[in-house]
Amino acid sequence: MALHTQQSISGFIASEPQRSTTEAGDVRMYVRIGQPQYRRNEDGSFTELEPTFHDMVAFRATAERALARFAKGDSFVAEGYKRTFPIERDGHVIEAEEFVAKKLGHDLARTNYEVDRSRRASAVERDAPSRTAAAKESTVAGALGF
């Protein structure tokens, strides 16, 4: 089976997240993000440069959760894809781009937080019978030499 990969992006939230609704009635989150930039010097050290800034959006449940959990200044990691689209600016049509985050979380390397697994426990309990059955099936197959 092939390994499924997506584009990813990391950086920091540069503006307060904004909530809106799509024409279809879905929740949309828009935020301006920054990405730190560095230049490697000949001696092996790095010089910090000005960050670059970009647009990022999320929709539906991802947008709802991001709006509840993210604030300006937070470091993040996101999985999704880059979308380009035409917009008119000063009478000219140009290509704009934004990152569409399908999955979004805080950057573990730069964020301290605690994880609440209370919802996860209920999901594990629901899955437990099927896992037990699979384990029994595996044990029987092993005993039979399969």
List keywords for this structure.
146 residues; 47% strand; globular
- Number of helical runs? 2
Secondary-structure element order, N to C: EEEEHEEH
- The percentage helix is 10-25%
Largest beta-sheet details: 5 strands, mixed, barrel
- The first-to-last residue Cα distance is 22 Å
The overall pLDDT, averaged over residues, is 88
β-strand number:
6
Low-confidence runs of at least 5 consecutive residues:
138-144
Task: Give the strand content.
Answer: over 45%
Shape: globular
Tell me the radius of gyration: 22 Å
Look at the helices and sheets and give the structural class: alpha+beta
- Report strand order across the widest sheet: 1-3-4-6-5
Could you outline the blueprint of secondary structure elements for this entry?
Blueprint: E1 7-13, E2 18-21, E3 27-40, E4 46-59, H1 60-69, E5 75-89, E6 92-106, H2 118-143
Parallel strand pairs: 4-6
Antiparallel strand pairs: 1-3, 1-5, 2-3, 3-4, 5-6
Description:
By secondary structure, this protein is α+β, with helices and mostly antiparallel strands. The chain has two helices and six strands; from the N terminus they run ββββαββα. The protein has a five-stranded mixed barrel. A hairpin with a 2-residue loop joins strand 5 and strand 6. It is globular. The C terminus is likely disordered.
